[in-house]
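testing teh design pipeline on a random one, pls ignore if ur not involved
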């Protein structure tokens, strides 16, 4: 069985998106050769990419626009994708499976059958339910070297405590750092 791994980039003060939807300019401060290599390695290890609806729609628009080319764009467009939504009816991005209804149970079954890892990108609302259900095995967080001051917080308010075990840190030449954590069960 593969793991369910979450990959996100956030500012040091915890925002994964600026004050406007899809304001991801903070990514520019952490992106470079090292993150490109990490992205390629993660994509090579992926059974499927998992998104909530809003992240899926933004990613689909970006990766199918032709604005990006190369191995990362090729993998993003070729890999199987799972979009969790109760409102989306006709996902257009190739290789997409739509999951509606009980997303936690559906992803639990998909994870049990997977041979490689499932990666959740972005999708803070979906992530909240996956964390509380104990489905997330590992969290990889790229910390962008800036304080954004405001925006969309990566972690939503919760009454749960989830203990983390640091697996590895990867400092980047541009001042960012990637943190790798194993997740404990929520309490």
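output:
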């Amino acid at each position: 069985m593969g793991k369910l791994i979450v990959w996100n980039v956030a500012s040091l003060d915890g925002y994964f998106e600026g004050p406007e939807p899809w304001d991801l300019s903070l990514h520019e401060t952490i992106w470079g050769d090292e993150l490109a290599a990490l992205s390629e390695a993660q994509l090579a290890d992926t059974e499927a990419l998992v998104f909530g609806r809003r992240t899926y729609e933004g990613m689909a628009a970006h990766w199918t626009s032709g604005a990006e080319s190369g191995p990362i764009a090729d993998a993003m467009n070729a890999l199987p994708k799972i979009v969790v939504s109760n409102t989306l009816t006709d996902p257009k991005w190739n290789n997409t499976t739509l999951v509606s209804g009980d997303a936690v149970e559906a992803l639990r079954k998909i994870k049990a059958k997977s041979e490689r890892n499932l990666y959740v990108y972005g999708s803070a609302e979906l992530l909240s339910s996956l964390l509380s259900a104990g489905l997330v095995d590992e969290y990889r967080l790229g910390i962008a070297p800036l304080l954004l001051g405001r925006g969309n917080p990566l972690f939503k308010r919760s009454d749960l405590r989830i203990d983390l075990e640091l697996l590895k840190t990867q400092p980047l030449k541009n001042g960012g750092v990637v943190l790798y954590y194993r997740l404990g069960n929520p309490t």
